[in-house]
Amino acid sequence: MIVCIMKRDWTGPHAAAQHGRMPHDHHDHPHALLPPDPALRVKALETILTQKGLIDPAALEEIIDTYQNKIGPQNGARVVARAWSDPEFRAALLADADPVLADLGYYGRQGEHMVVVENTPQQHNMVVCTLCSCYPWPLLGIPPGWYKSDAYRARAVREPRKVLAEFGVTLPPEAAVRVWDSTAEVRYLVLPMRPEGTGGMSEEELAALVTRDSMIGTGLAKVPS
């Protein structure tokens, strides 16, 4: 999976070489006192900020829980399921997503200027943010680590089919791949193709088939068993 590639690029002497820097002795830097594992570094930083009274751990946990479990990709999945079920909703969503999403309550910071692009047998869409990590938080929750990594941001543009293959997505040769670059001015959501064998399923059942990756374009909707 490409996730492994991302992790490999984050730390260590190889990462320093890739960025044109020679690795230094960790003892030369004060931050060497922090744990080497990124998760432990985050925890150490959180502890320091809490001790200084700059953050409230309870409020921080509530924010994380909201985006991971209450928003997560569930909001986006509901939008996709409704678009699969309601042709008029789908047409309005593709024509001008912002007012449609606002009516559903899916708007706000990191959710402005949304554009929905539809996968078809002729074209597969894939989203990246080459400059930073612009991402539709109100619809998909917290962006995954690989989405923010240098490797994904660079390779998604240069070799999208190879990246998709590493995610387990193999497209037919005749299907074009279009890569959309999210920015602070516009963010994209992929409307994946509805799987076969889902006729008669409710919107709730359909939403369960929609994955976060399928709405970024690095995955496909799940096929019902």
Describe the overall structure.
The protein has 225 residues and is mainly α. The chain is built from 13 helices and four strands. Strands 1-4 form a two-stranded parallel ribbon. The longest helix has 15 residues, at 57-71. It is globular. The chain starts with a helix and ends in a 9-residue tail after the last helix. The model is unreliable at 1-32 (pLDDT under 50).
Give a short summary of the structure.
With 225 residues, the protein is mostly helical. The protein has helices spanning 2-10, 13-18, 38-51, 57-71, 74-85, 87-95, 97-103, 137-140, 145-148, 150-158, 160-166, 203-207, 212-216, and strands spanning 114-118, 123-128, 176-181, 187-191. It is globular, with a radius of gyration of 20 Å.
Order of helix and strand elements from N to C terminus: HHHHHHHEEHHHHEEHH
How many independent structural domains?
Answer: 2
Helix content: 40-55%
The CATH class name of the largest domain reads: Alpha Beta
Beta-strand segment tally: 4
Runs in which pLDDT lies below 50 for 5 or more consecutive residues are 1-32
CATH topology assignment of the largest domain: Nitrile Hydratase, Chain A
Total helices: the number is: 13
How much beta, percentage-wise? 5-15%
Could you tell me how far the N terminus lies from the C terminus, measured between alpha carbons in angstroms? 23 Å
What would CATH call the homologous superfamily of the largest domain?
Nitrile hydratase alpha /Thiocyanate hydrolase gamma
Q: Main beta sheet: strand number and arrangement? A: 2 strands, parallel
- CATH architectural arrangement of the largest domain: Alpha-Beta Complex
Compute the average pLDDT.
81
Radius of gyration: 20 Å
Strand numbers in spatial order across the main sheet: 1-4
Shape: globular
